[in-house]
Design a protein that fits this description.
The chain is globular, with a radius of gyration of 15 Å. The longest helix has 16 residues, at about 100-115. The termini are far apart. It has one domain (about 10-140): Gcn5-related N-acetyltransferase (GNAT) (Aminopeptidase, 3-Layer(aba) Sandwich), CATH 3.40.630. It contains 4 helices and 5 strands; from the N terminus they run E-H-H-E-E-E-H-E-H. By secondary structure, the protein is an alpha+beta fold. A 5-stranded mixed β-sheet has the order 1-2-3-4-5, sandwiched between helices.
């Protein structure tokens, strides 16, 4: 993969299953998470459903090969009139890192959010994910909020 290869960002299609699954599995492995096979089926079905309120996926390609993905969810928010976009998962394969793929994916999420009238985009990352945070600090603004989950 050449570092000067153009990056194409496009919607996920049903023909992308193998590439999407490999990228998502690598993302889950990065976060030390294992999901049962049926969850991959369910997630892929949801990403392609086209239903309002359902998740969406964009793939980034270099040299026609999928090298990154982003999953988003648009939803209502109690503080804003317009909906907001939650960027749930972002992953770039190891060989494609530092080549602008993550930036291209987030930029496309921003562009689509603006077109849809939902310009507020937010996401979370692990505190120790310094590689990702270097990019996020350039294209986003960190907050003082902490994430909590029900045990």
């Amino acid at each position: 993969m050449k570092s000067d290869s153009p990056i194409l960002v496009r919607d996920l299609t049903k023909n992308d299953r193998r590439h999407w699954q490999a990228l998502w599995q690598a993302y889950l492995t990065f976060y030390e998470t294992i999901l049962p096979p049926e969850m991959y089926d369910r997630a892929f079905e949801r990403l392609l459903s086209g239903k309002e309120g359902e998740m969406r996926c964009l793939l980034a390609l270099m040299d026609t090969k999928p090298v990154g993905l982003v999953h988003t969810l648009t939803h209502r928010h109690g503080w804003f009139e317009n909906e907001v976009v939650y960027l749930q998962d972002l992953f770039v394969s190891e060989p494609a890192r530092t080549k602008g793929v993550g930036r291209a994916l987030i930029t496309e999420v921003y562009r689509r959010a603006d077109l849809a009238g939902t310009p507020k985009v937010y996401w979370l990352t692990a505190r120790d994910n310094m590689d990702a945070r270097r990019l996020y600090d350039k294209i986003g603004t960190g907050t003082d909020f902490m994430k909590y989950v029900r045990p």
